[in-house]
Design a protein that fits this description.
Strand order of the largest sheet: 4-7-6-5
Helix content: 10-25%
Number of helices: 2
Shape: globular
Largest sheet: 4 strands, mixed
């Protein structure tokens, strides 16, 4: 099996870590470091890595000024507990970018919001509506 580990630049790793754990209804834990953390599913699958802007010399993570957050990136998550995640999303965001709807291509319910760093996050149900 092959998996990707998507890494995004964030201003505050612990804050973003807490935000994603809240969105997905996960138990609250702390990231491994103040500059890096992995959001991990219950089976150990890495869902997303959070990397503090400028913490290391990675060319695309030097600073927000060199690579604005969300530039060309859409974070797309499929979840098995769509209604619970939607409820969490409504507590985290003052408004959703897209209200829940059925995507005509996947025939699944989805919605979108912005995370604390401005990334566009879409959440989709695993099962068709």
């Amino acid at each position: 099996m092959k998996r990707t580990w998507t890494i995004i630049g964030v201003d505050d790793v612990p804050d973003s870590f807490k935000w994603y754990q809240t969105l997905f209804g996960q138990q609250k834990t702390l990231p491994a470091h103040d500059h890096f953390g992995q959001i991990v599913d219950s089976d150990g699958t890495v869902l997303l890595c959070l990397h503090q802007w400028g913490a290391h010399e990675h060319p695309s993570l030097i600073s927000r000024d060199h690579a604005p957050a969300g530039n060309g990136l859409l974070l797309f998550f499929r979840v098995d507990d769509f209604d619970l995640v939607l409820q969490s999303a409504r507590t985290l965001a003052s408004r959703l970018e897209e209200e829940p709807h059925v995507n005509p291509n996947t025939r699944t319910r989805e919605f979108s919001l912005r995370d604390p760093d401005g990334y566009y996050v879409t959440v989709s149900a695993f099962s068709a509506a």
